[in-house]
Amino acid sequence: SSQIDGFGFYETRYAQWNDESGTTNDKWLDISTLLQSLPNYVECEDDFGVHGAGDPIDVYPGVKNWGPFYDKNVSKRVHKWKGSATTVYSSNYLNFLLEVGDTPNTRMEIVQYVTKLVLADQGNINIGFMQFDAAANGGMVLHPVVPLDDNRVSINDTIDSIKATGNTPLTETYYEAYKYFAGEDWLFGEETTVIGGCPWGTDGPNHCPSRPDTHDNGKYISPIDEPCDRNFIVYLSDGDPVGDKDADPQIRTLTGFDCEDPSNPCIDDLADHMKNNDVNDDIELEQNVRTYTISFLSDHPLLESTAERGGGKYYRADNVAELALAFNQIFNQIREIDFTFVSPTVSVNTFNRLTHNNQLFYTVYRPTLEGIWPGNLKQYKLDYVDDRLTIIDSTNNEAVDPVTDMFLDSAKSFWTLGESDGFDTTKGGFASRLTAVRNIYTQTGADTALAAAENAFHEDNAALTSALLGVADADREALIRWARGVDGAGDPLYQVGDALHSKPVVLSYGGTVDDPDLTLFYSTNTGFMHAIDINGGPADRLERFAYIPNASLAKLAATKSNTFGPKIYDLDGSISTYIVNDDGNGYVNAGETALVGFGMRRGGRGYHAVNVSNRDAPTTQWEIWGGTGDFVELGDTWSKLSPAKVRLDGADRDVYFFAGGYDVNQDTAVPLGDDAVGRAIYMVDALTGNRLWWAANSDDYPAAHLALDDMDYSIPSDLSIIDVNADGFADRIYVGDMGAQLWRIDLNADNTGAANFASGGVIGRFDGAGAANQRRFYYQPSVAFFSDENLGTFLAISIGSGHRANPLGTPGQLIDDRFYMLRDPNIFAPALDVGGDPVYTAVDENDLLDITDTPYPELVDLNSYNGWMISMTSNEKIISAAVAADNRIFFNSYIAGAAGDTTCDPSGAVGRGRNYVVNIGSGSPALDPEAVPSDDDYPGDADCQYRCEDTAFPMPPEPVLVFVEPDPDVASDCQGFADVTAVIGSEVKDTDICVSPTQSFWYEHAK
């Protein structure tokens, strides 16, 4: 029905139920004029097994006493689907036809209708048209490539003017398209004809050369006018080549391919050449053309080969709906950038706590124009190749190009059973291992046991009502089947939603050194939290279970329709694990409670905790919702649930800390104003979710346990929680807010309850008047103990600013972002005033040494300030948390491209990313700690004083430091417990950090 509603008609094969008397009674028959007169059920082949007569179970056509619909697929005994296709029209469309004209019944009319229909939904794209010559002598350019938005009338007029020629000179016309892109002299475009000619034709009634504004006296005016243009050909045909060899000599000379054999046309060779070579020498850099092909109403191996070699995709369309779908998918792919991912996840080796396991897990997604983006989860491994650490695939080959640091097309990720999945988001990986039978749970009522019958996410579960799903009864079953990943025939759909910001976590359940028992958890914007058995074999089902929270059920209908429009968010927040009553061995034992907690980021104002102590019998632990009760101030839940142990009123408590969240006011707020939500820090009981303590804005919440005058801005950041004295209990919290304030919260272990549990205040304030000073802190600060005989001893608090919600910036309102390192000399306790009460003093930029243009500041200058700062270049912002290790700080930035940039370099319209490595104490360059920038081979860029170097991806994920156990068979400078490497997306960078054993002595004094 959705196709009929969208296009007004739909073509497929139909069957109708006949309950009349006779030999054909109580059967499904090919629809006919006789049967159409009967008021009986109609089933269509393309919708088989999806809808019945309203019963959610009986959806398959049946016979005799089991008809007309049955709960089992017995199609082979019911109907053969041998009839010819029939077109069904909606009443609205028929009314439309009566008003405006005839039905599009010829192939050309269908193509014209669908093309205009699809283009009506497109924008911000340049488009032109070519046509075959009526005499099979190549083709002509009917309309130049121009912006669609400004030329819709003339483009539609051109579409309406196209006439069927009866001939399909595929190669010759394609070569003429090459000449157009290349800006070369026409070959066929001067003498071409169509029936009835063109208005600009001057040589007879059928003369139709290429349009005058596409050439200058026969030399084409190339549509490529900028080096950063992306160029495509969409080739539609319904026939084989006819009279199609006149361009072959030129193509052989151009490409070097041998296509002299009549059975070996040159068109796919030319497609290969246009994809891999520069087609226009007059434009700087290399200009390529990718080719998509559509074969209408026939199979066409040559068009399939042309698309495959031309870097596009081949589609076959047999009806209007398929043709429209092909066009839409092509336009969608043209706009997309495949394979975007967040930083990889690694797991701690529970059998050697000084190292990580060498598995890397990437959540990948492909941005599209729809609300939900295709996603996947892929596994690779970090290992040595030629004495260097790199990412390898399941075949033990390098997965990443050592030059570009991008995943190779030939890479085959772990879990992938078929061909290589390479740079393709939806191929291979976790999605390819989904099965038709899955353990998918929700919570329909009070029962928290997810494996209970009433919580099964299945169409057979009557407790999973259409009201919970927010759909009509007639749509309930189709929605559930789609969401649980099966098609009408019961086969897997192999679909996974995008995890745009959710980074997977791994829990260990024991096992052995050679075969650890690991389960990975991650959540997606389709509302699923997946539990995956990492080490499942080829025959194993990787997914142990999936969970859809009750509140996410009502979003599934919008997710399924997935129309063009704003991004749909759901479980997009950070995810974390916590083992309550942990005995310290690093994996889940009997008697311990393992929790997985996750927020929603832009998906909503909720937190969820699931008990996964028994992975085969998970339970919901608790939910928290902002805007009500104890959490009225809670905004969008960006902040990770951070587990900790504290002492509260003399009792040891397992808790979660999290910040107040995000106020969407911050998406566009310039100048900064006070937020309405998110101005808080919470502590809840880990097992119940009950609020135990909170800090909040003193004006609106004077009764908060810690009421703070300056807590005026939302806090989406994760919290940096530290145990200063290493007694196992949290002592301190550092966090920044949307007003560029840096907070320090001190936890009092000697408290008598929530009222005196903590003190705190602002220790840094870095906003100011004017748009340039509207800084924000989205990411948690790095906290590192630093001690140096020249610089002293302090906690180094490092944090960077950047408007993450507006990475491109706003012209005329660009923000001058910074990276700051503050010295906090009060390591073990806050400073006290004369009365013995904690006092917090905020430093500002005047209290920090500006070292932007000073790579090696003087010691006397460093000691004269409370830290240092680095100013980012124009429109550069910090886009991830900093990581401190080995007396160095690692952090990444993004520089937005300038409007109108004319270079294909990623630093143009897309922008570029940078990886900074600096020394903590001085901020001096530290990309290579064993060298100095004066060395010829020193890495880094001069314009950032050699503190940074470009990253492979324009917007790099945060750096992840991975501790790898050195391979004794590989020559390495590291002979310690762990060789530390930094992984930034798919880049692997040697940090020159080696964790080596140090001789220590333990003295125990008798008392």
Provide a quick synopsis of the model.
By secondary structure, the protein is of the alpha+beta class. Strands 19-23-22-21-20 form a five-stranded mixed β-sheet, with no helix packed on it.
Fold blueprint:
Layout lengths: L1 H6 L1 E4 L1 E5 L8 E4 L2 H4 L5 E3 L15 E2 L7 E2 L15 E4 L1 H10 L6 H13 L6 E7 L6 E9 L4 H10 L8 H13 L32 E2 L2 E2 L10 E7 L10 H8 L11 H10 L12 E8 L4 H9 L1 E7 L2 H16 L4 E2 L17 E7 L9 E11 L2 E5 L47 E2 L24 H4 L3 H11 L21 E7 L4 E8 L5 E5 L9 E5 L8 H6 L13 E6 L12 E6 L7 E6 L7 E7 L16 E7 L2 E9 L20 E6 L5 E7 L8 E3 L11 E3 L9 E5 L4 E7 L10 E8 L16 E7 L3 E9 L17 E7 L24 E2 L8 H4 L4 E5 L4 E3 L4 E3 L2 E8 L16 E8 L28 E3 L9 E5 L13 E7 L2 E9 L12
Parallel strand pairs: 12-13, 13-14, 19-23, 31-32, 40-41
Antiparallel strand pairs: 1-7, 2-3, 2-4, 5-6, 8-9, 10-11, 15-16, 16-17, 17-18, 20-21, 21-22, 22-23, 24-25, 25-26, 26-27, 28-29, 29-30, 30-31, 33-34, 34-35, 35-36, 37-38, 38-39, 39-41, 42-44, 43-44, 44-45, 45-46, 47-48, 48-49
Helix pairs in contact: 4-10, 6-8, 8-9
